[in-house]
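Internal tracking record. Fields below are filled automatically when a chain is submitted to the structure queue. Please do not edit lines marked as system-generated. If the sequence contains nonstandard residues, flag them in the REMARKS field before resubmitting.
Queue: standard
Priority: normal
Entity type: single polypeptide chain
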Amino acid sequence: MTDGIVNFCSDNVAGAAPEIMEALARAGQGAAMPYGNDDWTRRVERRLAEVFECDLAAFPVATGTAANVLGLSLLAPAYGAIYCHAGAHIHEDECGAPEFFTGGAKLIALEGAHGKLDPDRLAGAIAGAGDVHHVQPAAVSLSQATEAGTVYRPQEVAAIAEVARGHGLGLQMDGARFANALVAAGCSPAELTWKAGVDVLAFGATKNGALAAEAVLVFRPALAADFGYRRKRGGHLFSKMRFLSAQLEAYLADDLWLRHAANANAMAARLAAGLAALPGVVLRHPVEANEIFAGLPLALADGLEAAGFQFYRWPTLEAGLAELRLVTAFSTTEAEVERFLAAVRRLAETPLRSAG
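SYSTEM-GENERATED OUTPUT FOLLOWS
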């Protein structure tokens, strides 16, 4: 958030952390073996195993889309069904990549309050799967944190995993904002993933301070036997893999990832509390990580945009209201939050007429 502009469109608008940029500069010195046969990648693999307290297979990739869809390709055949929330990123924002990288698996979108899958609804959908004429249940995908900014606690993940396991399905977790979810849940990485039944995690870093770095973590290493080929075929076996791994190494060092997430979550909580105190403002979901969905009078939203504040508007069916998504980041400051809230308060006290 630069040049005095307060931009809450996404945590993707934030820059990269100085610690990560410095690590990249260090990695650029001298020669290193290519394609992941370097010291940075080996250190990251060991560090991730320590962080998650288990033997795992770790594969750096550059984008969240790659992390999600390559991980799902381990669980779902071409004739498989992948169950996810209707608002899940893999359903709404991956441009058909899950279907492409699985060779044709079908996404089955299910509704659920506040962005979460409901175990009973999931069980009913799986049980209702048909015969040879239909796609066959193969996997379940959870977004953590959800696209509504809410967080699955370990017991909620375990409840979904129990349904999946009971039907022989694998469980994948989209962890683009995993650090934010982890801080909110107040548990260990192991408790929020493999101990609760997760098989594959898309471990995100880009939204939380990296330049471009994610990783696919496979908690059942036998599943990962052919992942190297899938990553190569998918265009994510980087020749200079050390530059992805150097980012992840710095991200995990000295709990940088958790400190970043804690700041983003705290700024979201501060922003949400300030908005909730204003008349006419409605928070649509519990604010548990770093996303806020708020209904504001249309004139107020128009005034904020006219004042230079940036955010995304979400669809709404309520006349006279604008639905705003506000996302805080690792670099969001209290001053930026207070500047936004001060503008909201000022506009709320000033009679405005919407241009619409």
